[in-house]
Amino acid sequence: MKENILGVDVSKDNYDTLIQKLLKDIDEKRKSFIVAINPEKIMKAQEDEELRTLLNRADYQIPDGIGVILASKLKGGEIRERVTGIDTMLKLCEAATKHGKRVFLYGAKPGVADEAKEKLEEMFPGIQIAGTLNGYEKDQDVIINTINESKADILFVALGSPAQENWIVANKEKLYPSVFQGVGGSYDVISGKIERAPEAFQKAGLEWFYRLMKEPWRLKRQLILPKFLVKALTTRK
User: Are strands 102-107 and 128-133 parallel, antiparallel or unpaired?
Assistant: First the structure.
């Protein structure tokens, strides 16, 4: 089940139900596409029909943003748990380790996916990372063949949004994996190149505030949140 916020679908799943569904998708060889939804993307989708269509083509639109939770709550919806892109990736890696599923890391600058692979292998002993490929490889045949030869079940794509989502939609039917997730800068965070907010900020849904304190230039972007909430409350759809 999903809710629709300003024309953009948002899944009601929490981490547990999402991972269960994704494991079933792998076992049944069903293609699944995960996209993270936050207020900034929803607001951009108001003016960009192609982006809105792209977001709604996903099988799972995870509520990655405290503003999405607030909008759902204020409108009488049922979404209560923030499901972040990076934590979905980590929980998928944990599940892949437990259930013998294979993972492939595609995207980011040369070397970053390899560093993320090493860190994930430390975090999840026994994980099967079937391969890595940086995002600077331009030959699509090489990319597709490399991923397919790995026989990975789960493909993480770090090309930035919406480029990574467009790439997934364009190529997923040609690819062996069942589960596809665009993960943005997650490899940089996992490898330690970028510091994530402390756990207390994460649990409180205040990662945005922590980033704002560290990077005050983000203020203009964060002003989208009140505009989003007002629009969500005053728009029927």
Answer: parallel
Contact in structure between 86 and 17 (CB atoms under 8 Å) = no
Report the C-alpha gap between 58 and 195 in whole angstroms. 29
Residues 6+ apart with CB under 8 A from 24: 30
Residue type present at position 119: K
3-class secondary structure for 165-214?
Answer: HHHHHHHHHHCCCCEEEECCCHHHHHHCCCCCCCHHHHHCCCHHHHHHHH
Q: Is 166 exposed, middle or buried (0-12, 13-18, 19+ CB in 10 A)?
A: middle
pLDDT value of position 200: 72
d(CA 38, CA 44): 10
DSSP state, 6? T
Rounded CA separation 15/6 (Å): 24
Q: What is the model's pLDDT at position 224?
A: 81
CA 53 – CA 69 distance, rounded (Å): 21
Closest among 64, 111, 100 to 85, alpha carbons compared: 64
**82-97, pLDDT tens digit by residue?**
999 999 999 999 999 9
Tens digits of residue pLDDT in 197-208: 677 766 766 665
